[in-house]
Amino acid sequence: RRFFPAAKAQSISIMASENVGTLKQQLAKLFDESLRATIPEELDVEPLIAACNPKFGDYQCNNAMSLWTKVKGKGSEFKGPQAIGQALSKNLPASEMIESCGIAGPGFVNVVLSRQWIAESIQKMLIDGIGTWAPKLLVKRAVIDFSSPNIAKEMHVGHLRSTIIGDTLARMLEFSNVEVRRRNHVGDWGTQFGMLIEHLFDKFPNGEVASDQAIGDLEAFYKASKQRFDSDSGFKERAQKAVVSLQGGVDKYRKAWTQICEISRRGYEKVYQRLGVYLEEKGESFYNPYIPSVLELLSQKGLIEESEGARVIFIEGKNIPLIVVKKDGGYNYASTDLAALWYRLNEEKAEWIIYVTDVGQREHFEMVFTAAKLAGWLPAEDNKYPKTSHVGFGLVLGEDGKRFRTRSTEVVRLVDLLDEAKSRCKAVLIERGKSEEWTADELEQTAEAVGYGAIKYADLKNNRLTNYTFSFDQMLNDKGNTAVYLLYAHARICSIIRKSGKDLEELKKTGTIELNHQDERALGLHLLQFAEVVEEACTNLLPNVLCEYLYNLSENYTKFYSTCTVVGSKEETSRLLLCEATAVVMRKCFHLLGITPVYKI
Ligand code: ARG
What's the pTM value of the predicted model, to 2 decimals? Predict the structure, then answer.
């Protein structure tokens, strides 16, 4: 295998400039022109735009203060930040976006957007599709390493978090036109295979390959072999030799390994299917052949040293080095991750590599990333590409505030959680008489959408770094910030539109949106902020930002609906269009969060 030089680090900004961009970026563009006109000698100043207190306007440009400190005392024509703010406002190019500008405090420029422009933008989206509101990121290709369970061990709630968070990040980046490799870095190459294979051989002495049923519950199989490994020294010795035979590629061992992996894989696949998550497996074993040459590259850079019989990379500021070759000469988790990172950068040409694991692994990734920087594979600066990000998350807690376990103190099985969420939702629907109203299929599908959606949303709505408490009662509540509440809110909007009896496709073309009432305007503005929220969620890898937006959207809608009559009013057409736009944006949010929308309740 030939190795190519490491991908060249290059600097690219995250947003493509030719794209009209998000609301915020469109404003930034206008202020950029104004900045150049106002202070032509400070060309590298970036416009600082932020949403502002609604009392003063919609957005604010905050450049005046810092500009003042730059030009003060240099014979500037301006007498203070306020004057700079005034000039910034005066020099704004004419635009349909802006209704008015005001100056406040030390030169803040407050912008009130034009209602008509907001309305037209929404109508345009209704006609051209929500895809036109996708932020365009300049990153062309990303690898997201998520889910990644360990073969023969049950997937636990930590893997559920990784699966749910990783899938959402993948969906958001895909929506933003990034080519995403959804990578399942399964643990299929550990020393645990020695004991698994020996145990398999003992159970099937004639070398006959076992059927699925024979291994049955892989978790139990794993436990049985582990118990023997710990208590029987003869078995232990054989298991250790088996690892060598497996890694040496001995046919019989390879076959047994393949089979164990295959059974595990089928188990995972069922969970992924139920969650609607797609992943592409490249397990640890895949990178094994690359490890020697990758370590050689690092060695050539003088990064690898001998320490207590092992080969290690010392990282400044860390107490322990990164071990890349163990005392016994074997490779480990870190050597695999270095090879995988090399592969993703050089063979897959990924510009952004994202790892989704619990926060406990942060240290490991920091060391791997630093090693890659020292080797020159990655630029030293964090704002340059290619880059790597560790997306850490906290623990799932039980209602007792301790690490989440079931009664039997075993790890919680994912499938059981999904089953329970679904059956609880189904019971509620039946209680509401839906089994008479709907077909059996509709009942099943709705129970699934709501149940699985509730589990996902309960996880995603929190900042991922915090621990969260797993509670069916909380997540399945139809009030408050839950998927159930949001899905019902969406279904209610759909029912309002249905009951109006109007042809929405026709209205989109012939009607116009007007935002005369303040609650209409507030809802309209919130809709228009969708793109910048997705952009922020992508840039900071924070799904909770999108959840918060969705929840606020629903709140804005409720406010609008309680003050503005829709059906039968003289504003009916405009308001129905606003309802439709809300439903469209909500559905896109659901889609990005991996939640299946429901249309009736
Ligand atoms: N298999 C690991 C675990 O269960 C997660 C792997 C994460 N990805 C990686 N490239 N190390 O903890």
Answer: 0.93
